Amino acid sequence: MYLALANQTNRSTASEFIFRAFSIVPEIQHLLFTFFLLLYLSIIFGNVSIIWVACTDHSLHTPMYFFLGNLSGLEICYTTVVVPQMLASALDAHRTIPFANCGIQMFFFVALGSTDCFLLAVMAYDRYVAICHPLRYPLIMTWKVCTWLVIGSLILALVLSLELTVLIFTLPFCGHQPQINHFLCDVPPVLRLACADTHLHQTVLFSVGVMVLTIPFLLICISYVYIVAAILRISSTSGRQQAFSTCSSHLTVVFIQYGCCSLVYLRPKSDSSEDEDRQLALIYTFVTPLLNPLIYSLRNKDVKQALKKAIWGTAEPKAC
Using CA atoms, how far apart are residues 211 and 160, in angstroms rounded to an integer? Predict the structure, then answer.
């Protein structure tokens, strides 16, 4: 892929892109650098903590926490694709990124973000099986099945991202240094810089968006219709509360992730705004990866107890 993008550089008048999403005032640049660095370190720390307790605490060696650990790993990789370049741009007066590097960043950003969305749908299916078919759960959600669900999500996302990235970077970009009004090489801002007809590319982007966002979200909604119906049939009040607590953590993440991404990738081009897209991108690049470990640790008793046990060496006694 790298060679393909590098060869395309010779056919395009653009050799590099310039980010112009940040202020050129030095004091503000340093403030932004510090702010985003602290956010990035918090994301790394929070998600590494989730992975750590999911791996070390034997009580969490279940499919649900296997998916949660993979989700946290994706969040780390997802932000790492963006943040180092973003921090460099916040301090660099030139703020340039080579043509091929921009394509590589776009490829991994779309691939990891798409895997994130697919994995959220897989987690909804896991909750559906656990709550609606508890007796068959160990037979359905085997470790082999769980592993292949994660691998399949990643492979599908890589294929879709590769096709979309290559298609976009076959476009000509006018000028030696086109300016991206963004802090990363995302699809919509790069498409705006093409000096050619992009109707086909917009159609492909919308189709990929439907596959990555709309279809998984509909599957999640269908799963939760059955889940809610099953929870309401539980006679125990504590049982219903525990089931709702587990599902509410997942649903909170789903609505944040899918909502922001849908506004960027599924909104008509005529209704889109560069400033709004950049603000929404900040949410699913920083806010969602930061909130994920907080939401799952604060709203999940098992994770809270595992964290306390890992830090203090003891866990709170479970209620009988």
Answer: 9
Sign of the torsion angle spanned by Cα atoms 70, 129, 255, 251: negative
Q: Where are the domains of the chain?
A: 2-312
Fold of 2-312: Rhopdopsin 7-helix transmembrane proteins (1.20.1070)
pLDDT digits (tens, 9 = 90+) for 82-139: 998 888 877 766 678 888 888 999 999 999 999 999 999 999 999 999 888 989 999 9
Q: Determine what percent of the chain is predicted with pLDDT higher than 90.
A: 32
| pLDDT tens per residue, range 3-15 | 444 444 444 456 7
pTM of the shown model? 0.85
Give the residue carrying structure tokens 């992730």: 257
Range 213-238 average pLDDT: 87
Q: What is the 3-state secondary structure (H, E, C) of 36-83?
A: HHHHHHHHHHHHHHHHHHHHHCHHHCCHHHHHHHHHHHHHHHHHHHHH
Instruction: For 173, list phi and psi in degrees, rounded to 5.
Output: -115, 120
* Assigned token pair, 301: 């008793």
